[in-house]
Amino acid sequence: MSKVCVFDHPLIQHKLSILRDKSTSVKEFRELVSEIAMLMCYEATRDLPLEEITVETPVAPAKCRRISGKKLAVVPILRAGLGMVDGIVSMMPNVKVGHVGLFRDPATLEPVKYYFKMPPDIEERDAIIVDPMLATGGSASAAVAFLKEAGVKHIKLMSIIGAPEGVKRMQEDHPDVDIYVAALDDHLNEHGYIVPGLGDAGDRIFGTK
């Protein structure tokens, strides 16, 4: 069974309290999503392997450690996932970025892929899928399935707010994918919104509502 990591760091929780506030402006909301993603990136990459190297300082040689050539990709689920990308890229400038676009079929209610663009060597990379909200888990589960079809072997999911229903769906469909969230909220309402949540993350990031 995959692990679920809920971040309790004071900086993340403080920023999350402003993010939830319905009076927070589009500009500030967008900045906060990016900042929270950057802070979450620390923990989500904690298991990256290191190798020892020697660096010449101005004083003497120093034994140091650096990431040992691990190839990573961050994969936002369009469109709201785009809001998390800049924060992660600012932490890891060499990371490659793929994109997954999904919509829900009105008849079957299942996610349908309309866009899928990955780095050419995606099967050699570990992937972090990002989407601010893990609600029903349908989109996240589908995105993981598409990445697995593309040959990706190690995948993580990073969302700012999760619902128990989404976590349950992910753990049932993909027990090998660890989940990272800044908060695990109470439930989904009849419209599929996380309660208390923060509303529609895409609309609040892009100012479309």
Secondary structure elements and pairings:
Blueprint: E1 4-6, H1 10-20, H2 26-44, E2 50-56, E3 61-67, E4 72-78, H3 82-91, E5 96-97, E6 99-104, E7 111-117, E8 126-130, E9 133-134, H4 138-149, E10 155-162, H5 164-173, E11 178-184, E12 187-188, E13 194-195, H6 201-206
Parallel strand pairs: 1-11, 4-5, 4-6, 4-8, 8-10, 9-10, 10-11
Antiparallel strand pairs: 2-3, 6-7, 12-13
Helix pairs in contact: 1-2, 2-3
Give your account of this protein's structure.
It is a single chain. About 35% of the residues lie in helices and about 30% in strands. The chain has helices at about 10-20, 25-45, 80-90, 140-150, 165-175, 200-205; strands at about 5, 50-55, 60-65, 70-80, 95, 100-105, 110-115, 125-130, 135, 155-160, 180-185, 185-190, 195. The termini are far apart. The protein is globular. With about 210 residues, the chain is an alpha/beta fold. The mean pLDDT is about 95. Strand 9, helix 4 (about 140-150) and strand 10 form a beta-alpha-beta unit. The strands form 3 sheets. Strands 1, 4, 5, 6, 7, 8, 9, 10 and 11 form a 9-stranded mixed beta sheet that branches. It is built from 6 helices and 13 strands.
Short description:
With 209 residues, this protein is an alpha/beta fold. It has helices spanning 10-20, 26-44, 82-91, 138-149, 164-173, 201-206; strands at 4-6, 50-56, 61-67, 72-78, 96-97, 99-104, 111-117, 126-130, 133-134, 155-162, 178-184, 187-188, 194-195.
Throw out a few tags for this protein.
33% helix, 209 residues, two-stranded antiparallel ribbon, alpha/beta, nine-stranded mixed β-sheet
